[in-house]
TrEMBL record:
Native source species: Aquimarina muelleri
UniProt protein name: Peptidase C51 domain-containing protein
InterPro entries: Papain-like_cys_pep_sf
Length: 247
């Protein structure tokens, strides 16, 4: 071909690699394929080791990784106590299955018991502590207030890991004054669906709906309800329960 280098078609025109020269052609499916390839290669990996056999898999925020904890059973239990966001939006006067909080005079006496009477009322940390017992992270129902979770996680990182960047299904969260359970987290939309026992009415993100018990609700991570307020000492921490109480 007159000393020319490269590939040519039957008409003698040079064939360019797609996307590599100004005369080349790049198709959308090729762009999509390349983006997906790099995305999959860059996705955070998690080392799964079982009985000496280790593999790498893409991390999923809603994939249960605590194999010796009964995370799903605990979440199912908490969901059974809750009314849903859809129910509350449809009817602001929806009756709560579990109300907030225990009457003051006997609440502390009941918060670590397993009786029908003890489940009629529940505050935020009691719900979380009962959940931790249900997943068998604790052998009994502990009494931990919202500010003590950070202290515990700092002293026992092998039992309760601080996980602020990417909360997972089954995690808990707390700040000085409140605590709740992460039902799910979408790392793309940054939406956190929580299960909480909560008593609030005036905040704009609840759209004037009165909260007065255990409810499932979806929020934006790092905004409104789940946003730090350093002036008021509100620093949100997410925690991943790691070990069965027997370990």
């Amino acid at each position: 071909m007159n000393g020319k280098r490269g590939k040519f078609n039957k008409k003698g025109k040079k064939i360019y690699k797609r996307g590599y020269t100004e005369n080349g052609t790049t198709y959308m499916w090729e762009v999509t394929q390349e983006i997906e390839r790099w995305y999959n290669e860059g996705t955070e990996k998690k080392n799964n080791c079982n009985d000496g056999s280790c593999t790498l898999s893409n991390q999923d925020n809603n994939k249960l990784i605590n194999s010796d904890l009964k995370i799903q059973e605990g979440l199912d239990w908490a969901e059974d106590l809750a009314i849903t966001e859809a129910e509350l939006r449809s009817d602001h006067n929806t009756s709560y299955k579990v109300k907030y909080p225990h009457p003051w005079e006997y609440g502390k006496k009941l918060r670590a018991k397993n009786t029908e009477e003890s489940l009629e009322y529940m505050d935020c940390t009691e719900l979380v502590c009962r959940y931790l017992n249900k997943i068998e992270w604790s052998e009994d129902i502990k009494i931990i207030n919202s500010s003590e979770f950070k202290t515990y996680a700092t002293k026992h990182p092998d039992k309760l890991m601080i996980n602020n960047d990417s909360p997972k299904k089954g995690d808990i969260f707390a700040w000085n004054g409140h605590a709740g359970i992460v039902k799910s987290y979408n790392s793309t939309t940054k939406k956190v669906t929580t299960i909480e026992s909560i008593s609030e009415q005036s905040y704009s993100w609840h759209e004037g709906i009165k909260f007065d018990g255990v409810v499932i609700w979806t929020y934006d991570k790092d905004k409104n309800h789940l946003r730090d307020n350093k002036k008021k000492g509100k620093i949100i921490q997410y925690y991943t329960p790691l070990k069965h109480y027997s370990k």
